[in-house]
Write a structure and sequence with these properties.
The radius of gyration is 18 Å and the shape is globular. Strand 4 and strand 5 form a beta hairpin. The protein has a five-stranded parallel β-sheet, sandwiched between helices. The chain has a two-stranded antiparallel sheet with strand order 4-5. It is built from ten helices and seven strands. The protein folds into two domains: 115 residues, 3-Layer(aba) Sandwich (Rossmann fold), CATH 3.40.50; 92 residues. It is of the alpha/beta class and 243 residues long.
């Protein structure tokens, strides 16, 4: 890196994921401008040069592919990476074909994100991207080991992200249930897509599995009930701080 920290444009609409990714980028160190929509990202993109773009594949007012295409009209050289919670080979290939250098699958540890960014900012850096996923069969409400891996064991960051996660969760539960009730499956998948990544960042293992199950069986009232019970258990939690 140069003597001046690189400037990175981060686009992520989920507040928990945005906080996690922003903190990981700042620790490179790097300067980060964060946007929660395509419109906000376009406004920031017009303010000056960035050394790297990091875009969510799915945004409330468009897509990462569309955002990249619009920014490319005036900037053909800035390297771009995509991030997504959809670990689907066809979707990842489509992002690569659209011009993203790498596709990062969320949730992933801060170290993996930083390694991927350094590979672009410092082309001589060795190493391949690795992602992490929760695989605890006991399905605890909070998996401290998963959260610690994602945030390099920083207890203060874990606690702060969990507080933000719990604050946002009641509104997310309501949106998921309304989408299910109205058979708005596109809206339902959008909410579950964002929530699955957030669960991984904070170690909400039981809810993460319930989110995946509901996404796989979107018409199942039993899956919706499992999701609701898992989510409400976290909103009732009084001590989300890792042990």
């Amino acid at each position: 890196m140069t003597s001046q920290p690189p400037r990175i444009l981060l686009v992520e609409d989920d507040p928990v994921s945005r906080a996690f990714l922003g903190a990981a980028i700042q620790a490179l160190p790097a300067a980060v401008d964060a946007a929660d929509s395509m419109a906000a990202a376009l406004a920031l993109g017009a303010t000056g040069h960035y050394d790297l773009w990091l875009f969510d594949a799915n945004l409330p007012d468009g897509s990462g592919v569309e955002l990249l295409a619009r920014l490319r009209v005036r900037d053909a050289r800035t390297p771009a990476l995509a991030h997504t919670a959809a670990n689907d080979r066809d979707a990842i290939e489509a992002l690569l074909q659209a011009g993203f250098r790498q596709v990062l699958v969320k949730p992933l540890p801060a170290t993996a994100l930083q390694k991927a960014l350094r590979q672009v900012l410092e082309p001589d850096t060795d190493g391949a991207l690795a992602s992490a996923a929760a695989t605890d069969d006991t399905l605890p409400d909070w998996d401290d080991e998963t959260a610690a891996r994602a945030l390099n064991g920083n207890r203060e960051h874990i606690a702060a992200l969990r507080r933000l996660f719990i604050t946002e969760l009641p509104a997310v539960i309501e949106r998921v249930r309304n989408a299910f009730r109205n058979e708005d499956f596109q809206g339902l998948h959008g909410e579950l897509h964002r929530l699955r990544a957030s669960c991984g960042f904070v170690g909400a293992t039981r809810l993460q599995h319930a989110v995946q199950a509901l996404g796989d069986d979107e018409r199942s009232h039993a899956r919706l009930q499992e999701f609701t019970v898992a989510a409400q258990a976290l909103t009732a939690s009084t001590e989300p701080t890792p042990a």
